[in-house]
């Protein structure tokens, strides 16, 4: 296909991730799984399933990885869709590119289980995972190293985790990585204030409002656990560095810039990586967009701290087995 045809196909594929209230919820979720689930994972990444804190999770282990690093990935899906199965190819690529194990929870979805169910689930997973990693590191006196990553509405849930956990957990999070994050669903967002809006091939302000209403009640939209761009300075104290990838043609860009300013004004390191010609969540169409491959390379450098030129500067271990968390005792 031509470059233009690839772009059209990418837009069509990514649009499947966007929900509107005219759609049947089960049909919407099934279409995502049908479009994104793959029979074989790329790059010889191994997949195992574990239960952390009572929540089923996928664990991706690449052939070579840093033994102390774990990436905790919270998938998107407009608060109401998405699944481990749909994100397996994407998260396997992250695992391979970043030399990191990746853990993906199957958290509960709205509207049947609205706010704060998803946040409760990922908190349970993270605490259980943290305990397991802490036990594994105790013999060599190393501290576990976590990366929190998320896309779309999953970013709101991931940031709620960070805003709501104790310092002992937060100190072990080395980086937060967000793809086209939903950061403000309240009426204070640039999406709803009449400011200049970006053209967007994928997302609309109406969709964000509709899905937020399925996730929680409107009077809760300004809660920083729902709209993290409204977090207060005390909640951001000791916040880990943040890296955001987004397309230059998405309506979320103004909110992302506002969030960047908020973090920097509170002495939090933040880097926003804008891909000028790209759309919302373009990374999820890596089979169609060349820029998605380049974006993965930048992501790898952000998480692992290495690139192809200095890959030998760090030592990586061949895969140790990740023991089943059900055999562990939670702290």
Brief write-up:
The protein is α/β, with parallel strands linked by helices.
Structural summary, described in words:
The protein has 331 residues and is of the alpha/beta class. It contains 9 helices and 10 strands. The strands form 2 sheets. Strands 1-2-5-4-6-7-8-9 form an 8-stranded mixed β-sheet, sandwiched between helices. The chain has a two-stranded antiparallel sheet with strand order 3-10. Strand 8, helix 8 and strand 9 form a beta-alpha-beta unit. Helix 3 packs across helix 9 and helix 4 packs across helix 5. The longest helix is centred in the middle third of the chain and has 21 residues. The radius of gyration is 19 Å and the shape is globular. The C terminus is likely disordered.
Largest sheet: 8 strands, mixed
Provide the spatial order of strands within the biggest beta sheet: 1-2-5-4-6-7-8-9
Determine the N-to-C terminus distance.
54 Å
Q: Low-confidence stretches at least 5 residues in length (pLDDT < 50)?
A: 308-331
What is the mean pLDDT?
Answer: 91
The SSE string, one letter per element, is HHEEEEHEHEHHEHEHEHE
* Tally of helical segments: 9
Per the principal axes of the C-alpha atoms, what is the gross shape?
A: globular
The structural class is alpha/beta
DSSP strand count: 10
What is the share of helical residues? 25-40%
* Relative strand content: 15-25%
Q: Specify Rg, calculated over alpha carbons.
A: 19 Å
